[in-house]
Amino acid sequence: MKQTRVVTIQDISCFGKCSLTVALPLLSAMGLECAIVPTAVLSTHTGGFSGWTFRDLTDDIPAVSDHWHKEGLTFDGLYTGYLGSPAQAAMIGDFIETFHPGVVFIDPAMADDGKLYAGFTMDIVEAMKLLCAKADFVVPNLTEACFLTGTEYSENDLYNRDAIRALLEKLLALGCKTAVITGVQFDGMEGAAALDQNGIYTEYLTDHLPVRCHGTGDVYASIFFGALLRGLNLHDAIKVAADNVVCAIKATMGDETQWYGVRFEECIPSLLQDLGLV
Ligand code: PXL
Fold this sequence. Notes:
Elements: E1 5-15, H1 20-29, E2 33-44, E3 54-56, H2 60-71, E4 77-80, H3 88-99, E5 103-106, E6 111-112, E7 115-116, H4 122-132, E8 137-138, H5 142-149, H6 155-158, H7 161-173, E9 178-186, E10 189-196, E11 201-207, H8 216-229, H9 234-252, H10 268-274
Parallel strand pairs: 1-2, 1-4, 4-5, 5-8, 8-9
Antiparallel strand pairs: 2-3, 6-7, 9-10, 10-11
Bound molecules: 3-hydroxy-5-(hydroxymethyl)-2-methylisonicotinaldehyde.
3-hydroxy-5-(hydroxymethyl)-2-methylisonicotinaldehyde (PXL) binds next to strand 1 and helix 8.
């Protein structure tokens, strides 16, 4: 049987366990052939380090796309994350028009804890809105959902089902087919809530752990996307992603040397078991 082939477009943070250094090992472990388009190369991620290098690879995106088009490559799915510049959103739009990947999955990785990531301005929000319009799935955290919908970020006001449903509806109004907000908390539990264009709502909640670890959004998105490409339905895909993010956080808790990331590698065996791959 032909191997499922996906492409992921996000940065390489050379040290720090996020974006491509998380997505590539996870998607490969899940048995998917994974091509990459790096949006930028940074010496580290921008969450807690200072003095990082940043090489913008915007000009490479159309060049890579042109070559791949000439080679006749096709992709069953596309997953985008952290962009090197707002201009890349339109280029990725062209990429989608050229290759028509079966599943378009957009993680608008640009903000957390009520703030844009260091180095980003509101331009990135407008760029991400453009991409969301072309998506089958968008996977913002609560902060990103607020930026994308012009909603004031307030955990107190937003941690209830009515508020989250209203946010999901505003995300769908951007044009995506299914919106999923990660990191929502109801009744002392944490997880993800999803709404599709047919008005079907689903959620999966699990333990709320009293710690925040860098890179968990990328672990979540990679597993969620991979699970969809392995044929899981929406509810089962958000469940396997959440369960294995919890596994990664539990594996990391108490390890001060891992302040910059999570020990997701230790959860690959449980992930493969959950997927029935071992
Ligand atoms: O995990 C998201 C992410 C990806 N890439 C870079 C980042 C961050 C979050 O801070 O800085 C470069």
